[in-house]
Amino acid sequence: xxxxxxxxxxxxxxxxxxxxxxxxxxxxxxxxxxxxxxxxxxxxxxxxxxxxxxxxxxxxxxxxxxxxxxxxxxxxxxxxxxxxxxxxxxxxxxxxxxxxxxxxxxxxxxxxxxxxxxxxxxxxxxxxxxxxxxxxxxxxxxxxxxxxxxxxxxxxxxxxxxxxxxxxxxxxxxxxxxxxxxxxxxxxxxxxxxxxxxxxxxxxxxxxxxxxxxxxxxxxxxxxxxxxxxxxxxxxxxxxxxxxxxxxxxxxxxxxxxxxxxxxxxxxxxxxxxxxxxxxxxxxxxxxxxxxxxxxxxxxxxxxxxxxxxxxxxxxxxxxxxxxxxxxxxxxxxxxxxxxxxxxxxxxxxxxxxxxxxxxxxxxxxxxxxxxxxxxxxxxxxxxxxxxxxxxxxxxxxxxxxxxxxxxxxxxxxxxxxxxxxxxxxxxxxxxxxxxxxxxxxxxxxxxxxxxxxxxxxxxxxxxxxxxxxxxxxxxxxxxxxxxxxxxxxxxxxxxxxxxxxxxxxxxxxxxxxxxxxxxxxxxxxxxxxxxxxxxxxxxxxxxxxxxxxxxxxxxxxxxxxxxxxxxxxxxxxxxxxxxxxxxxxxxxxxxxxxxxxxxxxxxxxxxxxxxxxxxxxxxxxxxxxxxxxxxxxxxxxxxxxxxxxxxxxxxxxxxxxxxxxxxxxxxxxxxxxxxxxxxxxxxxxxxxxxxxxxxxxxxxxxxxxxxxxxxxxxxxxxxxxxxxxxxxxxxxxxxxxxxxxxxxxxxxxxxxxxxxxxxxxxxxxxxxxxxxxxxxxxxxxxxxxxxxxxxxxxxxxxxxxxxxxxxxxxxxxxxxxxxxxxxxxxxxxxxxxxxxxxxxxxxxxxxxxxxxxxxxxxxxxxxxxxxxxxxxxxxxxxxxxxxxxxxxx
Length: 890
What we know:
By secondary structure, this protein is of the alpha/beta class. The protein has 39 helices and 15 strands. The chain has a five-stranded parallel β-sheet with strand order 7-8-9-6-10, sandwiched between helices. A three-stranded antiparallel β-sheet has the order 1-2-3, with no helix packed on it. A three-stranded antiparallel β-sheet has the order 13-15-14. The radius of gyration is 36 Å and the shape is globular.
């Protein structure tokens, strides 16, 4: 049996991988394995698993984990001893350390073999997937051990004269750890021995500058000694090509790389491969994304990683989003390549031609940072396939023919925490892991924002991460908090916003006011007061400017910080107008859904209130499914203005005489949930009704709470969750009786009947449905008895009583018609057709089905096929086991 920790935690018995259970259970095993046979106390295991907030049952949970692990790996592997537990087992981590120890005592050739075997133990990130601060601390420790092993293997390679073979690997690792002096020295020696002395000197120069900027120190004596080896026997410098460089020096204009560059390892690897592939066409890569996403930092980092492939020089220019004209940049490049001012042509096309001539056949890297549009790039491009170009821009670079384009993503959570730790201090992040995660989320995982927060913490060593997280938790002031010295997130965003034309700038401000997870183009058109086509054009222009994201065709969203920045730009008048338009847009949608699903409850046709038009139930369901989160967020974020005008609609939908502003959102969710239920969208109904119930105080609003309980009970029963349905209907009945409200009592009696019916308790179901009808009659609402009648017909049919079903249906259909509810009438007619067919009266069955089809056709609800004489099959369908038979539960 073998345990593996240098990757995902695994246990192998021969070739078989054993199931070690949950991440928490694997973490328990890892803690014992890394103790190497030493006793680990129960309290220590609790600290490792839960840090500062263990549950009351923590000790029992740990014992359960250990018991399960013993069942998997064998009781003898995990021993319970005085003071705790221990596990003495073979691990890849122990093998790794043993091989390192043997290599330290061996000659160079044998040491290299041992080190290679040690590094082969690694399968990825150590302890991958394990949660908590302890696991993260172990990952940092083990990753450091791997780096040391790699450095030792490079040492052996250099001692064996394998410098040419390790230059590329050393350069890639050094780009990830540019201030690690042992790596810097090894790379310098490898380059010097490969005949690349100038690059070796450049490595030392870069490292010295980074150490001074980051830590305020000079290179160590060891690195300085390596530098002396590099320059001690200096060969005659290679003459520069004629006309290239000033004074025989190749241009090396790259800014210093960021010493704490973090993440994007896959992106860096892909870009390096593209720039060094050696294809027949000149490689051009374009990086785009919003301000603060890290385009420039990534471009410079990659440029340093590949500079060794471009020994004739590196040209760099920051075009500052169009503030610098291409002809100005061309002049600077030509001067760097050895031209005097008199030799630089006056006309831009001639300058571009001269640049191409001077770079022909040369191996030069060109970095064009922060360009405003692809038109600026064309005159600055070399013409030779031996060169390469990196371009960054806030706008999408779709017009760059032949370029490999990449839109940068946000940092992952892990990358954000890594960056925070590298700048502010890893120990502080490990000490407050939850606050650190909150900071990364408050920054929206935007690299610039994370770096600013980290810089603030680095400048205040005594400041707790939690204190800053609390300040950033207030969204109203977050943008203003994201500043460190002269660097601010707002200033970065402003560079992109200020380049927008007036109409696009207005759209950016107004659309940022929308609540909800995303923004459909129809809602954008409503907010802007323009057509759908014009709104889509504006949204796509903002996407091209990296100020808006598209999640699907016709749907958009803001990055959290861009949304906050945009909201801060909107004036009070346009804020009020746009918000009111958005609110009215969604209310139009709700009215349209209700028109389809609840036709007996909305204003009659021809009402003045506008509404969206849906072709039938599928379209209404689709709108509600995609927009319900936006509807809820929009209503929750609205003020009192504009709500009172919608109360009559909701009062009719919910059955109440008045709907207060305080419960407006639950009332809307109830209306949508009831609509979803009638359109057989059971999952959506359960979600909407559960969300509606949560904020309602049952003591203050017992009638509303009682109705939501009833609707939720029926939806849960239709979904097969009978125990939960019973619980809700019991609460609903209690609240209805407490309020003394006939409607609340009647709808919960109907719900109780539905629960009994779905549970197969047909006698009790009929009893409760009859009681519901009687409650409505006694309460002065006789027409509403048609609601329980619809379900009562199902019970009679399932129980083999078609004659009783006919009697109920013949009485209920006129009641549904009198309530102006053709949907209910159509369902009742469908049941009547089934009952007549069971009785053998085919003409009556055909008549009812024909009338039902005519009524239901506008709603596009599926009708049941003609039944058979088999009572068991009909009972199964009527009980809801065949969902297509009963598309509208109410």
